[in-house]
Amino acid sequence: VRLVESGGGSVQPGGSLRLSCATSGFTFSNYAMSWYRQAPGKEREKVASISSGGRTTNLADSVKGRFTISRDNAKDTVFLQMNSLKPEDTAVYYCGRSAYPNDWGQGTQVTVSS
Question: Which residues pair with 19 in a beta bridge?
């Protein structure tokens, strides 16, 4: 299983980023996928999940109305569109199969600061 997150960076509050997670080593379309984040000194938090077919999504209360999760089963990739970013969104973001929450990629750093 390989999970490669990308798209992170440094933005000002109110900015946007789109994260991507390219996957391989498993049948992507069979699995629900999730995005997680972990800030320094804090526990990992699940921020979004999407069903295998993409019809059902769930978002943490802290990101509802600002983040959107989507997937492209033809490209074995899951995305996280992040708008109206806040300093408290600063964290390393990881993707993974929802059923295997301990399988992570290397993560991508998101920093929101003025």
Answer: 80
Strand-pair partners of 9:
110
Residue 1, SS3? Answer: coil
Tell me the one-letter amino acid at 32. A
Cα 37 to chain centroid, rounded: 7
Least Cα distance to 57 among 107, 98, 106 occurs for 98
C-alpha span between 85 and 53 (Å, rounded) = 27
Strand 45-50, strand 57-59: pairing = antiparallel
CB contact at 8 A, 69 and 35: yes
DSSP code at position 67: E
Q: Which residue has the tokens 């998101």?
A: 110
Q: DSSP 3-state assignment of 85? A: coil
User: Residue 55, class by beta-carbon neighbours within 10 Å (0-12 exposed, 13-18 middle, 19+ buried)?
Assistant: exposed
For 44-94, the pLDDT digits (tens) are 999 999 999 999 999 999 999 999 999 999 999 999 999 999 999 999 999
